[in-house]
TrEMBL record:
Protein's recorded name: Adenine DNA glycosylase
Organism: Confluentibacter flavum
Stated family: Belongs to the Nth/MutY family.
EC number in record: 3.2.2.31
Cofactor mode of binding and number, as noted: Binds 1 [4Fe-4S] cluster.
GO terms assigned for molecular function: 4 iron, 4 sulfur cluster binding; 8-oxo-7,8-dihydroguanine DNA N-glycosylase activity; adenine/guanine mispair binding; metal ion binding; oxidized purine DNA binding; purine-specific mismatch base pair DNA N-glycosylase activity
């Protein structure tokens, strides 16, 4: 059997029943693909279902406030996806009368849509034979054909795209694309794949040469930067606190956070107290400072590691410009702050 026939046969017997596989509506496919970028299905599916319920059409999504979208996205990370999702929905509604572009080239023009997402939508919704190449596809192809070219290099991206395009079933590109992604996710897994039951065990170059653990090849990323975040959780006598909106570019753009003191090194109570006293919200205001978490919370992102401490600042006075503590959960916040809010149990 050829690679294509073997792959499709495996898929027909092993594919998972997932909600976005029951439709060719480009809105639903686009939404699922954006959510599943950098996110495993087990985590992403509840978000997909929540978005479909809250925003059943692109018109509903376009008319929402960005804060609503970010709040519903909370916990998924990579928040630029959510901001691009909302911006693109508004563009399609306002400029394209709510009609999705129906070709790969036109889809690529949408904000937040790259080669992979454009290929997925074009093939699944419009039957255009454009091959998807994601982490699963890189892994399957590099192992099966024994390819050493680093997948995160420009040469690698080009070579794997060309190979994937040669292999795609031009008569049924949707099934092929979903099959090879599913095979990588379920069968040809990153760690400890079950090669003994793999339908390609007699033709896989990596298996024949005992190189499964070596492929795919990836250039090591630069070492993540360390940042130290000290969040000041103000609690006033009239049960108010302060949340500030993050402006400017960054991973948490337009999300809310407690007042932040960023330092180059981790600070203990004695080191941080003078900085807190100089904070513009607390100058000449009596307060009590208490460290909430004894152990530093390390929040690991792809390019930086955040060493996070929360400090409770108790004010024996009202807070004129604060928000009621009862409303804290209404704001879209980064997951590390959301976890704190849940644990601290604001009343």
């Amino acid at each position: 059997m050829t690679f294509l026939k073997t792959l499709i046969s495996w898929y027909s017997n092993n594919k998972r029943e997932l909600p976005w596989r029951q439709t060719t509506n480009p809105y639903y496919i686009w939404l699922s693909e954006i959510i599943l970028q950098q996110t495993q299905i087990v985590q992403g599916q509840p978000y997909y279902e929540a978005f479909i319920k809250e925003f059943p059409s692109i018109f509903h999504l376009a008319s929402a406030q960005e804060s609503q979208v970010l709040k519903l996205w909370q916990g998924l990370g990579y928040y630029s996806r959510a901001r691009n999702l909302h911006a693109t929905a508004k563009y399609i509604v306002d400029e394209l009368n709510g009609v999705f572009p129906n070709t790969y080239k036109e889809l690529l023009k949408l904000k937040g849509v790259g080669d992979y997402t454009a290929s997925a939508i074009a093939s699944i919704c419009f039957n255009e034979p454009m091959a998807v190449v994601d982490g699963n596809v890189y892994r399957v192809l590099s192992r099966y054909f024994g390819i050493n070219t680093p997948i995160n290099s420009s040469n690698g991206a080009k070579a794997f795209k060309q190979l994937a395009q040669q292999l795609i079933d031009k008569n049924n590109p949707a099934e092929y694309n979903q099959a090879i992604m599913e095979f990588g996710a379920v069968q040809c897994k990153p760690q400890n794949p079950n090669c003994s039951v793999c339908p390609f065990q007699n033709s896989c170059v990596a298996l024949q040469n005992n190189r499964i653990s070596e492929l795919p090849v990836k250039i090591k990323a630069a070492k993540a930067k360390k940042k130290c975040f000290n969040f000041l959780v103000l609690v006033s006598e009239d049960n108010k606190t302060v949340l500030e909106k993050r402006n400017g570019k960054g991973i948490w753009q337009n999300l809310y956070q407690f007042p932040l003191i960023e330092t180059q090194q981790e600070k203990n109570y004695e080191d941080l107290l003078p900085l807190v006293k100089e904070h513009h919200l607390l100058k000449e205001i009596p307060f009590e400072l208490t460290q909430y978490n004894e152990d530093t919370i390390i929040h690991r992102l792809s390019h930086q590691h955040l060493y996070t401490k929360f400090w409770i600042v108790t004010l024996n006075a009202p807070l004129a410009n604060g928000i009621p503590i009862s409303e804290v959960r209404n704001y879209a916040v980064p997951i590390v702050i959301g976890n704190f809010i849940d644990a601290f149990n604001f009343q």
